[in-house]
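Blinded run. Sample ID left blank on purpose so nobody reads anything into the name before looking at the predicted structure. Input follows.
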Amino acid sequence: MRSPSRLPRALVFWLFLAAVAIVTGALRESLLRPRVGEPWAHWIGTLVLCAIFVLLIHRFVDRLDPPAAPNELWTMGVVWLVLTVCFELIFGRLALGSSWQELIGAYDPGSGRIWWLVLLTVLLAPPFLGRQRAREAGLAPIERRIEFISEDRAAEVLAWLSDLFRDKGVRYAAAGGLAARSWGATRPLVDLDFFVHAEDLDRLAADLAPYIVQPLTALKDDHWDLRFMRLEYTGIPLELSVAEHARYRESATGEWHDMCPTFDECPERGVLGVEVRIMDREDLLEYKRRVDRAVDRADVAAIERAHSGLT
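Blinded prediction complete.
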């Protein structure tokens, strides 16, 4: 299941912004202009509209599920900018009867008019207001020097790894975004994550050696305390974490919890067209609720929606 397109929702939201702009303009003409005259009515009305747009756009991007990636946010801004300019020119010409010279002059900073601030707002507000949530969700490829992986290629790598695990009798469970996708999440994948029994990981050393880009390393940060290795197979990044003694930190309390999955209780499920052993749904939801990053909240919401649709 691929991440749904944001464009239809973004277009509907832009129509709402256009309606807000029309109402704000009408109030400016009826309330402000008679009292303060021009250019004050224009300046105050434009600044108020920009402030309203910032608040509405922030709420819009913050409620996107899953969180939007930076490239999606920039696409929204560009589309909204083009629509706003077209709407302003067409509405001004046909509905208000303004001349082309008057309409074009509204975009000239030298004329004393500041309508161009509205254009900057609709262009820049989505990427700037959504970047923190994208960063928390791990959806900032430029900053993290990663890209969303091709799901077709990821399926090939997953099939290779699944066969390897099966041939070697490895005790493992898919985790992270891959497990979330299996249970109904929709966000793009950036890598393939697995927990593996320590003894089994040692037995895989010869098979994995050509693909290791980071050997087994201890990691302890704000969210995780574990040992993991990073691999790359045909350009697809993988992370194999040692299940024993792996822990995660609960965001609300700071308490550390054991992460080691019970491999015998992990079901086999199809994901990307490949049957693999996946973390138990309730275990996955429990740790994601506790870690409580933006990406975890998005995964939990999507998984719960998918589950409710089946009941």
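Unblinding after everyone has recorded impressions. The first strand starts at residue 172 and ends at 175.
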